[in-house]
Design brief:
Layout: H1 6-16, E1 27-30, E2 37-43, E3 49-55, E4 59-65, H2 66-71, E5 81-82, H3 92-102, H4 105-133
Antiparallel strand pairs: 1-2, 1-5, 2-3, 3-4
Helix pairs in contact: 3-4
InterPro entries: DUF2958
Pfam family, one: DUF2958
Protein name: DUF2958 domain-containing protein
Length: 134
Amino acid sequence: MILLTRTQRAQLLANGRQRGVDHVPVVKFFNPFGAGVWLATELDEDGDVMFGLADVGCPELGSWSFSELESIRLPFGMGIERDLLFTGDFPISVWAEAARAAGSARGAERRLYTRARDDAGSALKAADTETRKD
């Protein structure tokens, strides 16, 4: 599997040139066999050092080597994978706070999208109620 598309690489590099911005994650990598989730927001000009939320047992903001991530070999000839359906939707600070509260990046994902879905449902109900009053 290609871990990083050209478009994602370009966005990560652009984000890397804008330090201090609370970027939305561009890509999510994960271990399909267990612990390990990485949400990348930035890529250094060297094309290797990424920044974002890493969770290999304890979620934290920090940097890691993309080439090391690519070189990880798992059972059955597998490696780290890219979540093809991932959309960041929230700034990395929100992801980090939710991951600390949930105890993991995967728990944060469940919480954030459940809350967003519930908030959207509440907004629709409120709009429907207002329409019925008119």
